């Protein structure tokens, strides 16, 4: 009678946004001009569907529609 060991649940997927932002700043990743509305948006991947979505930590808004390049200047 072999005893089967219980399988461990998968590790939760999460990101520490503050660490991610600090790494991005240290790597020189600049998104547009600092403080501009476009630079406030972050691109993320939905883990269940694999599709990209956009998150604005300043306003707390999320959207499936790309907020980049939708200004009056084209």
Query: Which bin fits the share of residues in helices?
Result: 10-25%
Tell me the strand percentage band.
15-25%
Can you count the beta strands? Answer: 3
**Radius of gyration, taken over Cα atoms and rounded to an integer in Å:** 18 Å
How would you describe the shape? elongated
Mean pLDDT across all residues, rounded? 73
Ranges where pLDDT stays below 50 over 5 or more residues in a row are: none
CATH topology (level 3) name of the domain at 38-65:
Ubiquitin Ligase Nedd4, Chain: W
Q: What is the CATH class of the domain at 38-65? A: Mainly Beta
The biggest beta sheet, please? Answer: 3 strands, antiparallel
Q: Which strand order does the major sheet show?
A: 1-2-3
Which labels suit this protein?
alpha+beta; Ubiquitin Ligase Nedd4, Chain: W; three-stranded antiparallel sheet; 14% helix; 16% strand; RHG27 protein
Characterization of the model:
This protein has a domain at 38-65: Ubiquitin Ligase Nedd4, Chain: W (Single Sheet). It has 74 residues and is of the alpha+beta class. It has one helix spanning 17-26, and strands at 42-45, 52-56, 61-63. The mean pLDDT is 73. Keywords: GTPase activation.
Q: Any chance you could write out the topology, listing elements then pairs?
A:
Blueprint: H1 17-26, E1 42-45, E2 52-56, E3 61-63
Antiparallel strand pairs: 1-2, 2-3
């Amino acid at each position: 009678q072999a005893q089967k060991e219980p399988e461990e649940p998968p590790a939760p997927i999460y990101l520490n946004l503050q660490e991610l932002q600090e790494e991005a700043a240290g790597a020189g990743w600049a998104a547009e001009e600092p403080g501009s509305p476009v630079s406030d948006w972050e691109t993320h991947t939905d883990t269940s569907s694999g599709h990209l979505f956009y998150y604005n930590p300043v306003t707390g808004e999320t959207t499936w529609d790309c907020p980049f390049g939708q200004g009056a200047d084209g």
